[in-house]
């Protein structure tokens, strides 16, 4: 019996897709999938609800770019296929254990090494360039900085699903994933979308220290420690400070608790691993960093994104939560810092660290300026206990 006739166009597309998956693995991507460059109605409605509730907080760009974010074609009308790739950054320890190091700064796992934007985008460009050379197609690469909803595209391309914590979860890699997208005007063979496998589990919701999830699959960023320590620009509300603990940049709790991480593997890209001595830096050392020292110490890492002043705001909160009396002296120096934000956080931190007599003495020695409302408020609230 003769073989059925072969369709050369379908065969060419299959061969191209197979080559691309191998090439992606060679670049260090653990996950690979292809889907249409199209966001479904459910995700578009989710974005609208998020903005209607004001959950974006200080992240004004989310509202400003909402029209483009709803569909890839709104940003690039010629886009037809989305090649979605996932790179794992699984830690070699349980990040929840870091919460016990109260005199050290706890930095989110993803931010301890080189900035993933640079690492992933460099590899995406290599892959996209090879693809364009082979096909003559136009390509554009994206890593978390353009108005593109990568997680819905990843689910459509079969990499995983958006869990109840709103992050992507993979049956192959758990929650420790960086995503990159190559949009192209080429029509390709699509993978099957992934379905939700959270079931009745709600561990990620229940572990959140600040109750940032008003419902499964919904995140109020204004209550999220990652948002508060990275994106939020001003004074962090008192109701969240104790819950922040020693987290000075980001939070891993809802990722770390996910049962699907039993399938996660260690980070395979050396550049994404923690810099030497960067896992849990002592708060005392961080409190001594001036702006130039901050930029040197965190050069090439995502921590630079917070900026020196916001970063020290976080460190002062962690110092207040530490119970470490050795930090009283370095924190006290911030009572005369030029930045009102840092003076205010120093007042709060000292109230947590010193007894009533020392607090009263400090209050007599450091009288805030009449116009310095943030600092005055902290002194007043401290008096009330």
Summarize the structure.
This protein is α+β, with helices and mostly antiparallel strands and 385 residues long. The chain has helices spanning 8-26, 41-52, 60-64, 66-69, 72-75, 116-135, 150-156, 203-207, 225-230, 238-244, 253-256, 283-287, 291-297, 308-322, 328-332, 340-353, 356-365, 373-383; strands spanning 31-36, 81-88, 106-107, 139-142, 161-162, 168-169, 177-184, 247-249. Strand 5 (161-162) and strand 6 form a beta hairpin.
Topology:
Elements: H1 8-26, E1 31-36, H2 41-52, H3 60-64, H4 66-69, H5 72-75, E2 81-88, E3 106-107, H6 116-135, E4 139-142, H7 150-156, E5 161-162, E6 168-169, E7 177-184, H8 203-207, H9 225-230, H10 238-244, E8 247-249, H11 253-256, H12 283-287, H13 291-297, H14 308-322, H15 328-332, H16 340-353, H17 356-365, H18 373-383
Parallel strand pairs: 3-8
Antiparallel strand pairs: 1-2, 2-7, 4-7, 5-6
Helix pairs in contact: 14-16, 16-18
Which percent range fits the helix content? 40-55%
Spell the H/E element sequence: HEHHHHEEHEHEEEHHHEHHHHHHHH
Count of helix runs: 18
**Poorly predicted parts:** 1-10
Number of strands: 8
Bulk shape:
elongated
Structural class: alpha+beta
Distance between the termini: 88 Å
Q: Provide the domain count.
A: 2
Radius of gyration over alpha carbons? 24 Å
What is the typical, i.e. mean, pLDDT? 92
Major β-sheet profile:
4 strands, antiparallel
Strand content: 5-15%
**Strand order of the biggest β-sheet:** 1-2-7-4
Question: What features would you describe in this structure?
Answer:
- This protein has 385 residues and is α+β, with helices and mostly antiparallel strands.
- The chain folds into 2 domains: 8-199 and 259-280, no CATH class; 282-385, no CATH class.
- 42% of the residues lie in helices and 9% in strands.
- The protein is built from 18 helices and 8 strands.
- It has helices at residues 8-26, 41-52, 60-64, 66-69, 72-75, 116-135, 150-156, 203-207, 225-230, 238-244, 253-256, 283-287, 291-297, 308-322, 328-332, 340-353, 356-365, 373-383, and strands spanning 31-36, 81-88, 106-107, 139-142, 161-162, 168-169, 177-184, 247-249.
- Strand 5 (161-162) and strand 6 (168-169) form a beta hairpin.
- Helix 14 runs parallel beside helix 16 (340-353) and helix 16 (340-353) runs parallel beside helix 18.
- The protein is elongated, with a radius of gyration of 24 Å.
